[in-house]
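The records we work with from here on pair a chain with its fold. These numbers are not coordinates but entries in a learned vocabulary of local backbone shapes. To see the layout at work, look at the sequence and tokens printed below:
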Amino acid sequence: MKQAVIDIGTNSTRLCLAEVTADKSLANITKFLTTTRLGEGSADGFLQPTPMERTANAVVSYHRQAEQCGAEKIYVYATAAVREAQNKHDFAQLLQNNGIKLDILSGEQEAEIAYLGAVQGPDSAVIDIGGGSTEVMLKQNGKVCALSQRLGAVRLFERFDGRNGISTSLLSEVRNYISPTVEQYSAIHPESAKSLVGVSGTATTLAAMFLQLDKYSGQKVQNTRLTIDNVRALMTDLFLPIDKRLLIPGVPENRGDIIPFGCIILEAIMTRYGFDSLRVSDTDSLEGYLMLKNT
């Protein structure tokens, strides 16, 4: 059976089409991404009309595409930008007006599907750095333990900008700002995991940079290993002004402004919790949501 899921994030809206086989595994997976910046200008706790409209239009377009591709079930979920907005129901109504039901995930649910979707070993922690939140998750005593914090690449970009480059003083300012939040992940003891898996845009972009890919390939990115020294070297490259940053192979235009901040978050968490390397997974919450729905 062909199924589809649409993920509405702070920075982008994504579509995943997949065949759900008889044993509930996923095959023939195809993904699409549109940068919609739903979280733009929402620091006051309200989604703005223009980002809501362009995001809703993207969701409607993806929903129609999924129908035309023969998807028998189509799921739509939203993460940090929507769940934290005081006017979240206004956005949900925009979709409902087009016959689309929205599932607004809690931070814990978002973490659960990211963990399910990532290809990881039993002793791995998983990190998902999004535009509006960062989830860290690991399995303890047979159960997934997760923590979601309001720490995201779009949030940091809107606070610190960085388009003219990230200076030493600005880096220090960002690190001091995120340090208390990074420390809060100690509540779930990420350091107890033997390895770390990274999913979503920050991790996959760093892998694409490391591999010097002119065109993104999930197949090539899958299982790429980055040492902490690799992450720091790539992070330094990203501190260039945005016009030079976008010339680096692997850096997509739609992520060039926010990717330095995602990298700063990743490096801070790896350093604080003692991870000397990261394995990148191109499979993530999209696959995880479908897996959850088909259990």
The mean pLDDT is 94. The radius of gyration is 18 Å.
